[in-house]
Structure formats: C-alpha cells, structure tokens
Amino acid sequence: MNRTCIPRFLLHANPCKLTSRSNIILLRPIPYITSSSPHPTTRTFTSTPFLSKKNAKKGGKGEEDHVGDYSSPLPEKNTSAAIDFNTQFEKLEGEIARIMDKLKDDLSKLRAGQADPGLLEGLSVVLDKAQGTTAPLKDVAHVVTRGRGLAVTVYEATNVKRVVSAIQIADLNVQPIVDAKNPLLVNVPLPPPTRESRDRVSKQAKTVGDRALDAVKSARLVTHKKIMSAKKSTRPDDFKKADKKVEEIVKKRKAEMEAVIAAARKGIMEG
After folding, report:
1. DSSP states of 210-249 as a string?
2. For the residues 142-166, what does the mean pLDDT come to?
C-alpha cells in the first residue's frame, strides 16, 4: 500500500481535514518555538521522568554527582557573619586588661595612709561672703597626693585663705599649712590610720575587687555569645577549642586579679 507523506505547511494549514481514512501517515510536527512564535508551547513526550523539586533539594535520583571526595556532608547555609576567634580572644584580653588597670588605680586610692584628692576636691569654698558666692575647691585649686598627705596648689593668691578656711571647717581632722617657700601651696598632712579605719578601707577594697571580677564575668559572657553565634557554621572540634580558650583566658586573668586584691588588702592592714 502506498502511503503519502504530507508536508508540514499543509498540516498547519488545515490539520482537521486529514484523517486516518485517507491512508496518510500524519507526521506530527515538532514545533520550533522562539520568543516571537505565535504558537503555544507544546511539551513533547519522553521516557525520562522529570526530577521533582523535592527530590532535587534532597539530592534524590536524577541529581548530578559532585566531582571529588565529599565524604563529609556539605555545611549548612549560615546567614550569620563569620567569626574570627582570634579577634574575639584579643578583644577579651584587652577588656580584662582595662578592668585590671582600673582595679589597680582604685585600690591605690584606698590604701591606708595614702590620701585621695577627692577628699578635698568636693569642698565648698566661699568666694564672697556678702553675696554668698561659692565654688568647688577643684575649680580654684589643684589637689595631688604627696606622701601621707595632700598638696593643694591654689590658682590665685586671693583664694589661698579661702581654701585654708574651707579645709578647716570641713571636719576632716586635718590642719592645712601654707608652704613657706610657695605662698600658693597648701600642704595637708593626714594622721596615721587607726585599726578601725584600716578595717573600713579593707572592706572597701573587697567591694572594689568584687566589682572588677563581675566586670570580667560580663566580658566573658559577651565573648561566649559571639562564639555561640558561629556554632552552626563551625566544626565541633573548633568550637570546643574556642570555648575552652575563653575559659582558660578568664581563669588565668581572674587568678591574677584575685592576687592583686589580696595583696592590696594585706597592704592596707599592715601599712
């Protein structure tokens, strides 16, 4: 039996008139679709099953094999920024060093027999009795520690007597003395500390030390939170090493700080 092949343009012209009775093989056109083609997109049949999105995400059948050795699973996508552990260690060390410096400075001011300039700086100096004008002593003079006493340098000669008077009426149990060689200098010797005053200052030193230790704990907590934020994107071994390093830093610096506090309290009671 002879069979006739129909050109494609005739099929597009009037495909409805062609039937199987006409003893013609219908050649199904393979549409060539471009972005400007007026014909709708036609999906051709294939024996290869489509890969579903679900299987594609999970790496199911149909997913291409990765080249290379991937014995360990790929890391999960992490939206948090990468953390440089060494940088965090340095920041922690720097913060603890700052706390240590402040602790030493505060303890030095509390030692028995060593005066604190703040003892006089807040005194009120009467500048004009008629008008009742006053000013803090720190605004008219500069106070520094000198041995077991304080040295007050008055800025203007007219205020020397006023500063001396302010110290005398402050009920501090001290006697200011104007320096014989420098009329603008007022020396304020302090009496030796008593047992009661030593106990009081020792307790103050303990309070100062406790505040410093609490500040170290806060610094440790900040660093620990930073490291925890990178836990998902960090290998377990690296995370454990980083956390252990933080504990080692804190333990070492805390021991040093406790030694400074103990030495200061001992010096207060014995000095």
Report:
1. HHHHHHHHHHHHHHHHHHHTTSTTS-HHHHHHHHHHHHHH
2. 92
